[in-house]
């Protein structure tokens, strides 16, 4: 029995919110719930962001086929095998960043020293984006993710897209051993560069901000649970389970939710959700964070426990749209935690946790700084 309840989004639009684990997981597999809307201009929005604030496209019927094709195109780029091959390089980058942070401190801002540059370096190397362009790229990504200032968001998306478009053209003329070159070589539509630019810009966004946030959050959770941090430092075998628990836990309770309104879906047709009937075009929000704290699935959900098992959290989604960057994201988190646990067992926050602030009005809200000492 689904328990969808009516809520208002940040833009004041009506939506249905689902929060129980079993229901969220079931609805992540529901083919009648997608990202497209027959009348996008009339659709409820979740924010003013030009990226993810509203529907993607106006053809719900064609969406499953298009999404499957996009996944097929991207699959080789993020296969477990490719990530496995990248693992030593990710390790080298993570340890290099941690060592540079140690050389300059204490104290240090772990957000600037590690959490931001690692995913940026990894995604730039993977896609073949020159790292020298990272500051521009960072600015555009930040603009694009603005959930309040629509013009700023549109500008950011446009700049990011134009940048990747130019890069894709260069890769067509002068291919290298990177994902963007592979995508350009494999594209066969009428306008392959435009297709690849859209894929690449989407990836830069999907794979970057999310991972920066996940690293910040993992460090915050571990440093505010010193006994678990000590356990991890003593036994690095705990790293994979610790990664999963930091992904499940989200922000500490006091900082939570302003950013997790739920994963948006639009109903392609009228749909019965238990006692409520969702009309065609209605917005349904799948509350991943709430599902990850459902006591029926996660005993004592508020307890942060790096040995929690099983830990079937929904942080990467589930079903047909399950995150394709999951192996990469897990590898980055694991290498950061291993490098920190091995080199800085005395790591702790340099400010009280309630002084940390999430950057407001961003799609994937993170902290603007993570002051640490050791
Ligand atoms: C901790 C970091 C990450 C988190 C929390 C995360 C989360 C998610 C979630 C929840 C979805 C499902 C969206 C939906 O159902 O509508 C998703 C999809 C996706 N993610 Fe991630 N992601 C992360 C890292 C990455 C990375 C590193 C990449 C690649 C570089 C990536 C690429 C993708 C792609 C391509 C999709 C779309 C799949 C589709 O539409 O079929 N993600 N991610």
Can you summarize this structure?
The protein is of the alpha+beta class and 374 residues long.
Written description of the protein model:
- This protein has about 375 residues and is an alpha+beta fold.
- The chain has one domain: Cytochrome P450 (Cytochrome p450, Orthogonal Bundle), CATH 1.10.630.
- Helix content is about 50%, strand content about 10%.
- It has 13 helices and ten strands.
- It has helices at about 20-25, 65-75, 80-105, 110-115, 115-125, 135-145, 150-175, 180-185, 190-225, 225-235, 240-250, 290, 325-345; strands at about 5-10, 15-20, 35, 110, 265, 270-275, 275-280, 285, 350, 370-374.
- Strands 1-2-8-5-3 form a five-stranded mixed β-sheet, with helices on one face. A three-stranded antiparallel β-sheet has the order 4-10-9.
- β1 (about 5-10) and β2 form a beta hairpin.
- α9 (about 190-225) crosses α11, α10 (about 225-235) crosses α13 (about 325-345) and α11 crosses α13 (about 325-345).
- The longest helix is centred in the middle third of the chain and has 32 residues, at about 190-225.
- The model has no long low-confidence stretch (mean pLDDT about 90).
- It binds protoporphyrin IX containing FE.
- Protoporphyrin IX containing FE binds near residues 67, 71, 210, 317 and 328.
Summary keywords:
3-stranded antiparallel β-sheet, 13 helices, 374 residues, binds protoporphyrin IX containing FE, alpha+beta, 5-stranded mixed β-sheet, Cytochrome p450
């Amino acid at each position: 029995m689904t328990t969808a309840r009516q809520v208002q989004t940040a833009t004041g639009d009506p939506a249905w919110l689902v929060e129980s684990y079993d229901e969220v997981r079931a609805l992540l597999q529901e083919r009648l719930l997608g990202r497209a809307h027959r009348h996008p201009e009339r659709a409820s929005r979740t924010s003013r962001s030009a990226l993810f604030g509203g529907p993607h496209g106006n053809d719900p019927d064609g969406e499953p086929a298009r999404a499957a094709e996009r996944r097929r195109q991207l699959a080789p780029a993020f296969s477990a095998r490719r990530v496995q091959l990248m693992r030593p390089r990710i390790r080298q980058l993570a340890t290099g960043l941690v060592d540079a942070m140690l050389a300059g401190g204490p104290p240090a801002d772990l957000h600037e020293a590690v959490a931001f540059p690692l995913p940026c370096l990894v995604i730039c190397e993977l896609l073949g984006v020159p790292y020298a362009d990272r500051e521009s790229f960072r600015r555009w990504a930040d603009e694009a993710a603005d959930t309040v200032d629509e013009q700023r968001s549109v500008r950011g998306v446009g700049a990011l897209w134009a940048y990747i478009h130019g890069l894709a053209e260069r890769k067509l003329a002068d291919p290298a051993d990177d994902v963007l070159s592979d995508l350009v070589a494999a594209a066969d539509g009428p306008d392959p560069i435009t297709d690849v630019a859209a894929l690449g810009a989407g990836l830069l966004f999907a794979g970057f901000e999310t991972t920066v946030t996940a690293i910040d959050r993992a460090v915050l959770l571990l440093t505010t649970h010193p006994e678990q941090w000590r356990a991890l430092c003593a036994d690095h075998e705990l790293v994979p389970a610790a990664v999963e628990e930091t992904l499940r836990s989200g922000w500490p309770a006091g900082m939570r939710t302003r950013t997790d309104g739920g994963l948006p879906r639009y109903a392609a047709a009228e749909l019965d959700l238990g006692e409520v009937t969702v009309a065609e075009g209605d917005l349904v929000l799948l509350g991943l964070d709430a599902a990850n704290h459902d006591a029926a699935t996660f005993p004592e959900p508020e307890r942060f426990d790096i040995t929690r098992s099983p830990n079937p959290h929904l942080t990467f989604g589930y079903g047909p749209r399950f995150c394709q960057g999951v192996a990469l994201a897990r590898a980055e988190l694991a290498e950061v935690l291993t490098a920190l646990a091995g080199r800085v067992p005395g790591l702790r926050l340099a400010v009280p946790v309630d002084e940390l602030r999430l950057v407001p009005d961003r799609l994937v809200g993170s902290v603007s700084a993570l002051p640490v000492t050791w």
